[in-house]
Amino acid sequence: MRKQSIIRVYILLALFFFLGLVFKRKRKENDLNVPAFDVSFGDEFGNGMGPREFSYDQLATATKNFTDEEKLGEGGFGAVYKGFMRDSNTNVAVKRSSSRSEQGIKEYASEVKIISQLRHKNLVKLIGWSHEKELLLAYEFMPSGSLDSHLFNGRSLLPSEIRYKIVHGLASALFYLHEEGDFCVLHRDIKASNIMLDSTFNAKLGDFGLARLVDHEKGSQTTTLAGTRGYIAPECHRTGKASKESDVYSFGIVALEIACGRRSIERRYDEDQASLVDWVWKAHGDQMLLVVVDKKLSTNFNVKEMECLLLVGLWCAHPSPNMRPSIRQAIQVLNFEASLPNLPNKMPTPSYDDIPNTSIIQTSELGSLSITIPR
């Protein structure tokens, strides 16, 4: 009799355990559709001016059920597919998240909330979103693809004037994010693959999954290390602190990649050329700066512009954050409205002193900044 009672207890415990697992799994699935998730987006999308909510079926139909034939690319976040929206007669790029983890949902929510508040010609426009069955984001379609596909994968040879135009566009986007809004937006993942190009090769910065909003007065945020190897500012490895200066560092790396036509880290090169920053800085110290220019350009480039681009790239990628320019200062040099930076011949040893408050420019101090491309 006692044995039967013990068996009943074990059966009940097993039943409760099973029901607990079912409930937990159900709750995790419902997290993709919790009302709070919608509330956190609601007002931003209710005015009809911003992105719209799509059903899963709408985006699946647009991409032919996410067929491989429509796949534009794939990264750590998941895959991107080309889609066609019949109701608006437009092409879109649909990002399909590969993760339903807490971190994946957090990045998805961050991207929707932040980019929906941004309006700038050099930012990829968010068309809509869906988290009905999967985490999906629909963006304006960029016919010329990503910058890295041209620089590193041979999609086309970008002429030097187009490269300079792309750097200006990226700088304009970063100035808007850092200085022109109610909050400073730290992108935290500026890199060639996150820079998209439209049909006339205008640059548009995308992928705001790692972006964070901070007060202009603070200008930085302590967090876990984020970004992509080769583009992360050296002080971030030590402090985990993202800042305007760390975004500027990533911008500098991209500027050097555009000028040199190679990635920031290339193991196939000799040790003295494996790091792009080290290699360019050595060429600068040897008074042979232009030797690093992309060989595919031959001599078909504007020497003045290319020298400016390389020096601004080094300045922005300075090892010490308090020696980097603001993005506004970088733009003034790129526009030839200010003199070229006076950089030491040898790359300095990093200094991680606190960034002075003077490096944080208040929004009220800035007017609109026009960006002209020298001919």
UniProtKB/TrEMBL annotation:
Q: Which InterPro entries match?
A: Kinase-like_dom_sf, L-type_Lectin-RKs, Prot_kinase_dom, Protein_kinase_ATP_BS, Ser/Thr_kinase_AS
Question: What's one Pfam family the UniProt record gives for this protein?
Answer: Pkinase
The protein here is known as: Protein kinase domain-containing protein
Q: Which Gene3D superfamilies match?
A: Phosphorylase Kinase, domain 1, Transferase(Phosphotransferase) domain 1
Which segments constitute the Protein kinase domain?
66-340
Q: Topology versus the membrane, per the UniProt entry?
A: Single-pass type I membrane protein
Coarse class of the primary localization is membrane
Q: Name one GO biological process term.
A: defense response to oomycetes
Binding annotation for ATP:
95
Q: What keywords would UniProt list here?
A: ATP-binding, Cell membrane, Glycoprotein, Kinase, Lectin, Membrane, Nucleotide-binding, Receptor, Serine/threonine-protein kinase, Signal, Transferase, Transmembrane, Transmembrane helix
Q: Single GO molecular-function term?
A: protein serine/threonine kinase activity
Record PANTHER family = PTHR27007
* Species name: Rubroshorea leprosula
Q: Mention any one GO cellular component term assigned to this protein in its UniProt record.
A: plasma membrane
Q: What family is reported?
A: In the N-terminal section; belongs to the leguminous lectin family. Belongs to the protein kinase superfamily.
Query: Where found, per UniProt?
Result: Cell membrane
* Transmembrane parts of this sequence: 6-23
